[in-house]
Amino acid sequence: MKARRDLAIGAGLAATWALTALVAAPASAQHDCIPYTPTEAGTTINSNWAVPGEQDDYQIVIPDDPGGGYVIASVSTSAPSEPMMRIIPPSGQGVVTDIATTTNGPSPHTLTVAFEVDADTTFDVEIIEDTVAPIDQHPVAYTWTWTFVSQVDCYEPNDGSPSSWPDPSFDAREIPLDQELTAYAIAGHQASSIPNDADHSWDWYELTLGAPTDLWLATTKIPDDQRLRMRLYPSDGPPAIASGTSSVAGDEISFGPVTVPAGTWYLEIHPIDNGEEDARLSEGESLPDHFITPYRWVVSTAPIADCGFMAIFCDGFESGDTTLWSTSVP
User: Taking the model in full, what pTM does it have?
Assistant: First the structure.
């Protein structure tokens, strides 16, 4: 349960102060959120293995939806054959998933997996008769299907490692102050795994301030399987002047006030723990939370813990948390 958290001042004074801060906030109204219509993609193929142990090759082609998303892929056949499905990443090295029949699944004849994907990528797929039927029972029919689920992130592409500065600043998306914003922390496979320091795992946002400003920064929702970090940078890039990090997966971040002069500032949001990159659905695993749950955050000119005027932002604070704000410098 979420708890209301009031500042140690009268409710009327708090609301008046917050309203004054919002009206006077010296910030650009620019909002580089570019909505798009999610693309539907996928196919169903009915085919067969003509000879025992045969391998058939296919491809999964992901549309150029900037935010990427995830794919659910499945192969099913009938006894006594049992299938194997190997999904090879765009790099061509290793496998995203290599799933064959196990005793964990409800059926030895159906395999279903999900994995996160980046925009405009292609995966090679091998469908193999792993446990083979007698030769006189061939051809053996099977059905292979895949579906792309697009997760709309209107700020993408806005990627880049801080180590490659100033490149991330070129793709940073300008955001407004005092609004709850939403994006996904889906990096997607370029290789068999997704390193925490992969260039495409960072999200960058730009703030334009016309006068010195006190800023409070906080998340209001983080996927249950990820730890995020927020860092605020000056216009010339690293090092950051302030930061906050989830202590455990799903834990919210809050820090401030950070007093910054007029000018351009950059906010980095980055999963330092990516969460699970795939799920074996036919073995009872669930979709990782960050596949389906966006993160939400706000950069505010008023203390976000004032749940009177700023009530929309209070859902992110856990009951029993007595720390209003903390500030740390990496």
Answer: 0.83
